[in-house]
Amino acid sequence: MNGKEEAKKRTQLLKRLREEHKDTVARTQALLKEQNAIRKQICQVMRDAPKTVPEVAEATGLPASQVLWHVTAMKKYNLVVETGMCGEYYLYRRVEETKI
Amino acid sequence: MASDKLRVDALVVGGGIAGMQSALDLADQGYQVALVEKEASIGGKMIALSKVFPTLDCCSCITTPKMSAVAHHRNIHLLTYCEVQSIRENGGGFVAQVLKKPRYVNEDLCTGCRQCEYACPIDLPDPFDRGYGAHRAIRVPFSTAVPQIAVLDIENCLLCGKCEQVCPVSAVDFTQTPQQLEIEAGSIVLATGYEVTPRDAKKEYGGGKLPNVIDALFMERLLAPTGPYGHVLRPGDGKEPESIAYVQCAGSRDQTLGVPYCSRVCCMYAIKQAMLISGALPLADVTIYYMDIRTFGKGYEQFYQNAKAMGIEFVKGKVARITEDENQNPIVRVELIDEGSRVVERTHDLVVLSVGMLPRYNPQPLYGVPVADDGFVEVPSPNISPCVTDRPGIFVTGTAAGPMDIVDSIMTAGAAASEAAAYLRARKSASSVSTTTGKERELVYA
Amino acid sequence: MPETSEIRRQKDSQSNPQGEEIRIGVYTCHCGGNISDVVRCEKVAKVLSEMPNVVVSRTHMAMCSDAGQAMVEEDIRERGVNRVVIGACAPSLHEQTFRRTVARAGLNPYLYYHVCLREQDSWVSGGDCEGATEKAIRLMAAGIAKARHLKALDPIRLDAKQRALVIGGGVAGLRSAWDIARRGIQVTLIEKSPFLGGRMAQLETTFPAGETARELLHDLIERVLAHPNVTVHTRAELVGVRGYVGDFHVQIRRQSRGVSDDFAQAQAEAAIAACPVEVPDEFNYGLTTRKAIYRAYPGCTPATPAIDWENCTLCGKCLQVNGQGIDLENKPETFEINVGAVVVATGFRPYEPRQGEYGYGEFPEVVTLPQLIRLLALAGESEGLEWNGHPVRNIAMIHCVGSRQIEGIHEPQPDGQVNDYCSRVCCTATLHLANELRGRFPNVNVFDVYQDIRTYGRGHEDYYTQASANMVRFLRFHAEEPPEVVPAPDGDSCPVLVKIKDYLTWGEEIEVPVDLVVLAVGIMPRPIDDLIKMLKISPGTDRFLLEVHPKLRPVETAVPGIVLAGTAQGPMNIQESCAAASAAAAKVAVLLGQGLVELEPFVARVDPERCRGSGQCVEVCCYEDAISLQTFSVNGREVQRAVVTPANCTGCGACVSACPNRAIDVQGWTLEQYEAMVDAIAADLPASEVGV
Questions:
Q1: Which residues in chain C are closer than 8 Å to B337, comparing Cβ atoms?
Q2: For residue B419, which of B84, B341, C68, C384 sits 20 to 30 Å off, Cα-Cα?
Q3: How many B/C residue pairs have CB atoms within 8 Å?
């Protein structure tokens, strides 16, 4: 089997799977859209200086718990890093190459 | 890849600490063991803990070597991401139909490099971190997972194919389908574990509603080096808490929840966590609201006394309700029993519910093993034979037979292995009449 | 007589293949923060990477995890690492783990060295990061230095005797014996007293299922006795032990029973009746008396009575009934058996309150919980409860007597220590009995005086709930203000008062007049100092026998082949004792089931070319048959040379220091290795690292 055929087969397979999992894919896509929108806002706030979770929450209007969840996720996958503390809160900085 | 048919001496169901220990104790005696775990990694509840009482060993130090030993043992066939679907008897033994769920990742090729995980665009709440951390739709379950193989969650997948593109060894495989596997086993050890009380079980405590009321399993994650925040922070806003309260018996010894029994571990884990918090946040105050402190195991009372000496505050009191102030600080309304049952309200930064242990799995339909009123596996002769179930050849270990801590789970794991080994031997002798006297056989089955 | 060539061959097998390049892999474990919170692991790894022979130096969150181990394996396979040094927790935890890792990758497991960076460094450095990091570097450098001199070793393999010795005929010992026997291994069970059953025989109904203790026990005893693999000796004690795992030689001393097994039942009753001696009956905790020829209780096993040699006056009255089956001369016999493993199931004794503790020994109205159990059994079906000739209407039960003691508040035991542990079983046992009292004698009021109610076990909480429903009155004291038992003023209806500051009612001082005070005494280990010494096992700070690790090796002692079962290890109820006993049996089956045991090769080894036969090593050796002088022929001349029997050698090293010719070394711990380690630990750190 040559590469072309394989690629074609793969595309077909994914297409079939997408059809089978139509609902879950749609749900996940909506989730991703929301996630990306929130991430964009968070990165915007952190653009110039490191920020704490309440600072981001205040600037974006998002609940602090939600901001923390996203910052935690971004930290896990190296999109933000922690840079010390401000009072009782940790500061987070965007990693330069982060593109959302 | 495992073959479609497997013949072993013992089938161990559940890859938590009790199941792993039972499997090791049987395999070390030379028995062939199949260990079936429904999750993608073994390790059970224990692997998510921070440190363990009363020795304060880091949990990984105890669990991961056992996980590794299970994975490498030549007498153990490890089957993760598999579920037993039916059991039938066959000439005194059992035949289990096992469903092997598709990982959508080729187990033989995957190296656990996690490039797929980094490529996946969607972040989902990670149950390993009680939902407070994130993982991707394709991921290695956690850093110390065994096996170190990625698993794709098709229900939350975008089917974008990015993982497939980045995988250096072309292990991502969307063609996988569920596989059937048949395991023939002479005996079965049930090590199906427990579930914790849902956070929102007791409405008065606001769990699941108030952001800064968490359960103790999440505190384990906060204290673990691999925890989601890397620090002890409250999930409402990421604040480093200065005042933390524990509410004991939040889900145990509570008739209104239908859980009249004591969960055995909550006193000790709360005290342990309080000690660890004192280490992580030296300025924080920790208060434990309790009814009775039950530090009954070896070295436990001494552990409790040490905690008191460290300045952890123990308050005998019944917590009636938890609300919050405008800064989402939880307010604990408590009846102080030592002060003539005076009712006070105290504000803390973070409240931890010492949730209890609930039965997780009812083996009656599949295994014909009845459960008692408390929902845990019934043990007909609890004193003399604590691991023997109502059905010959099926044994139980760990928290499947009621709440217990790790030490006791490990003890019963050895006991269940002993029972299974004796059963297997008697069965073998019974089929080859030469070695056993009739008397022995009768007694063994008695 | 062996020739010189023999000596030379021994020497050769010891030396290393020449010209092998030493390639060391060094790993510094974070131990999930246990080490890395204090020690700068990355820095340590960097410094080590520059040391001679080190080809890789890495760190990992948890070296013991599968991923950590895989890293080591890969370095051995792919990068030619042939010596491994890991700095992690104490070797007692994971040295074995990593030896297996190294072996899996095809390397000799003894080409591995374990450095302790946790217990010896991070945990004891008080947060001094600089100091701890420097110490870690030095410890690791010493490990690397040793690794350069490591040689491949083989474990000592020995046949394992397919027999185990179980010490103790209580429920744990019986349960353990039965499990071992069922696994196809022979068992010899020895019991010190003339009867089987231990403490459990003295109980009546048990929690949580309400079964009758002696029925359960007899069922188990019957199964044990009927099993063809089991031999039971009552009145037998361990008096000597030699050997090692797989091959212990144990000496057992057995006293005569004084009564033969075929002694007829009817005659036994007559003989017991004829005995004029009356001594306090330990079975009923002194509440009744028994004779000097006696049975522990009706229906006990063995059913044959025994003579109590300590109290028998040899008057011969029993002989007059029927002298045929009775022999009034105690002829203890000592015999030796060969076993592969030993299960220690020596059980517990109830705490004996000191004179005056809560009025114990001062007022006849103060009894212990075990005594109350016997008292209720003796009371039979009677309508009312009586004690000391008086009807009992009010009972106070005081918890935590001899348990949860606090230094400065409670008087220490004779060894100077207080019992600071919880005895685990007393709360449920007390409430179980409180309910029985309320059920059988509804007119009796029960006051339960406690600190914390610890009805933790499955089904135990029900006893607490029932007790509340049964109108048992609870009074709660604080540990630092224990209740007092005082005589009641003259004319009071009850003989004693229990004074308590009750924290369920505002810390009010309350006086409860009662007819009987029951002390819920705790569990203490039996005094078995001789046995501990003989077996070379250790008690913990609570005096109970110590396991290696409560989670990793919960039933094993530090002596290979000696395992623990039941309350010798710590307070447990029947259920927990049985689980522990079965777990111990599983461990015995693991040890002996394969027919072979392996011992560490860290034993003395003689260099026959250097040995001059001075014999000083033989003189200093404390172990039987571990080292001896043997005659060899060298160039036709007879010479004496030291020879080690590896199985008997513990590797203590006494002989090494005694040898004037440096002809002896302990394999794996040679003088050469020590010297290299000392040099490395004392060496100057690279200039850039001073003041890390």
A1: 503-504
A2: B84
A3: 250
Locate C45 and state its tokens. Answer: 């790894």
The answer to whether residue C595 neighbours chain B at the CB level (below 8 Å) is no
**Alpha helices, DSSP H, located in C87-158:** 91-104, 129-148
Q: Per-domain residue ranges for chain A?
A: 3-94
CB-based burial label for C53 (10 Å; 0-12, 13-18, 19+):
middle
- Start and end residues for every CATH 3.50.50.60 domain found in chain B: 5-101+178-193+360-434, 197-356
Residue C276 shares a structural domain with residue C302: yes
Q: What is the CATH number of domain B197-356?
A: 3.50.50.60
Chains near A (3 or more Cβ pairs under 8 Å): B
Phi (first) and psi of residue C449, to 5 degrees: -105, 110
Q: Are residues C383 and C493 in the same domain?
A: yes
- CATH no. for residue C118? 3.40.50
Give the model's confidence band at C90: pLDDT under 50 very low, under 70 low, under 90 confident, else very high.
confident
Query: Distance from first CA to last CA of chain B, Å, rounded?
Result: 40
Amino acid at C310: E
Same domain as C276, residue C224 = no
Nearest CA in chain A to B161: A14
pLDDT at residue C22 tops 50: yes
Nearest to C454 among B294, B302, B412 (CB): B294
Q: Looking at the structure, tell me whether residues C422 and C506 fall in a common domain.
A: yes
Per-residue pLDDT band for C19 (boundaries 50, 70, 90) equals low
pLDDT level of residue C7 (50, 70, 90 thresholds)? very low
> Which DSSP string do the residues of A30-80 spell out, in sequence order?
HHHHHHHHHHHHHHHHTSSS-B-HHHHHHHH---HHHHHHHHHHHHHTTSE
- Is the CB of C226 less than 8 angstroms away from the CB of B446? no
Collect all residues with Cβ–Cβ distance below 8 Å to B238 and sequence separation of at least 6: A52, A53, A54, A64, A67, A68, A71, A89, A90, B229
In this structure, what DSSP letter does residue B251 have?
A: S
Instruction: Please report whether residue C316 resides in a domain.
Output: yes
Instruction: Answer whether B68 sits within 8 Å of C66, measured CB to CB.
Output: yes
Would you report the helix, strand and coil content of chain C in percent, each value rounded to 5? Answer: 35, 25, 40
Our CA-based measurement puts residue A51 at a distance from the nearest CA of chain B, in whole angstroms, of 12
pLDDT at B51 over 90: yes
Asked if residues A44 and A55 have their Cβ atoms less than 8 Å apart, the reply is: no
The CATH code belonging to domain B5-101+178-193+360-434 is 3.50.50.60
Is C311 in the same domain as C289?
Answer: yes
Domain that holds residue C186: 163-255+334-347+526-596
Q: How many domains are contained in chain C?
A: 5
pLDDT-derived band of residue C323, with 50, 70 and 90 as boundaries?
low
CATH at C207: 3.50.50.60
The answer to whether the beta carbons of residues B250 and B197 sit under 8 Å apart is yes
**Contact present, C418 and C412 (Cβ < 8 Å):** yes
Tell me the C-alpha distance between B42 and C420, whole Å: 37
Which chain B residue shows the shortest CA-CA distance from C65? B64
d(CA C204, CA C54): 67
Pick from C193, C185, C184: which is nearest to C161 by CA? C185
Determine the Cα–Cα distance for residues C423 and B357; give it in Å rounded to an integer.
23
Give A53 to chain B, closest Cα distance, Å. 6
Among residues C422, C441, C433, C350, the alpha carbon closest in space to that of C397 is found at C433
At CA B122, angle to CA B120 and CA B128, rounded to 5? 95
User: Which of C89, C171, C590 lies nearest to residue B25, judging by beta carbons?
Assistant: C590
Residue C437's contacts (CB-CB under 8 Å, 6 or more residues apart) are C376, C385, C395, C444, C446
B157 and A18 in contact by Cβ < 8 A?
Answer: no
Is C356 in the same domain as C413? Answer: yes
ipTM of this complex prediction, to 2 decimal places = 0.93
| Residues from chain A contacting residue B156 (CB–CB below 8 Å) | 24, 28
The CATH architecture of the domain made up of A3-94 is Orthogonal Bundle (1.10)
